Structures are given as structure tokens and as C-alpha cells.
Amino acid sequence: MKKIFILLLAVTFSSLNAIAEPVNSHAQRTLIVYFSQPENVKLDGVDGVSGASILQKNGQISGSTQYLAQIIQRYTGGELFRIETVTPYPTQHEPLLRYAEQEQRDNRYPELKTKIDNLTDYDRVFIGYPIWWYKMPMPLYSFLQQHDLSGKTLIPFTSHGGSRFSDSLREIKRLQPDARLVTQGLAISRDDVADDGTVTRVGDWLNKLTSVQQ
Description:
The longest helix is centred in the C-terminal third of the chain and has 16 residues, at about 200-214. Mean pLDDT is about 80; it is low at about 1-25 and about 45-50. The strands form 2 sheets. Strands 2, 6, 7, 8, 9 and 10 form a 6-stranded parallel beta sheet that branches. This protein has a 4-stranded antiparallel beta sheet with strand order 1-3-4-5. The chain is about 30% helix and about 20% strand. The chain is α/β, with parallel strands linked by helices. The relative contact order is 0.19. It has 6 helices and 10 strands. It is globular.
């Protein structure tokens, strides 16, 4: 896995509130699924930080992927669903790295807290995750194995450390062969999540997606 970066967070959650109306008319049929894992970090007196997975700003803690999911939600008006595991992951960075590495080596699929029962309510599903050890986190495998997304449009997004989607798009297609996978996913380096232009970048990406799907 790429090294952890600690950087100042320039994007505030207030900027999300500045987003206006959803960019399209599919809001009621849109689901935004994401896995995001905050970690404990020391602020050391600075106002905001981001690491491999965490964003902390003005006392609020969220994951980098969660932050992107929230931006997408604001633009699309879709519903958010967070993938959570029954057994929590370590919150300290180094133990988390070791745990995730061993989980992949053992090919363990963690049990999820909740399953989505109303998938028929949605036509398109955004799927967000970080890249851990150059792969999707194992909870994503659990999610994709436990849910039938046939006939739906799947739109991936990720916060990564340099490997973009790595092999995750192929894995999503393998696990959901009857879904339509949009390959123009959003891949933002965790170094860039804090940029002032992230909100606009996500909006531009969504507008391009809309034109692609028309």
C-alpha cells in the first residue's frame, strides 16, 4: 500500500452546502454505496487533516471516500448507504494496514452489518471505496457477493494512493456480470481530495456521466 500522507484539508463541508440542485432527474432512483474507514490521527494543532482514509475538519471526522460520496449525494439527491462490517477495523493506521493485508492474504470476506433489501427502488448505483493494497477492500467483495445488481448501472468512484482503480473494475464486473458498469469512474488521489476544486471536479464528472448515459 502506498504511504500515508498527512495534508491540510482545504475543502470544508460548508462548500457542500453551496451545491445547488441535483444535476439530473434520476435522484429518486439513485443509490450511493460506499465503504470508508476513518482512522485516528493526531491533529497537532492544525485545523484539518486528511490521511489515507480520514478527513477531519472543524471537529468533524469522516472518511475520504465518505466525503466524495457526500458530494455526489448533494449533486444527485441520491440516497447514501455506508458499508459497515460486524467486526470493526483497527482505527490506528499501522494496525489497520496489517489487518487489511492479512485479510486479503487469507481471502476473508467480512460479515456486513446490514444488507440492502430494496434494491428494486434504484436504477443506478454509485459504488465508492478506497484502494487497499492495490485492491478493493474486502468488505466490497462481501457487498458485491451478497447483492444482486443485475440490470443496474454501476458507477465506481475511489480515493486512492496512486493506483487509481487498480484491478477493481474488473473485479466488479466479474462479481456483477449482468450489471452495466460505467468505466468512466471517478478516481481522485487522496492527495487531491483536499483541493478547493474537488467539489467542482465531482460536479463536472457527474455532468459528463449524464451526457454519456443519454
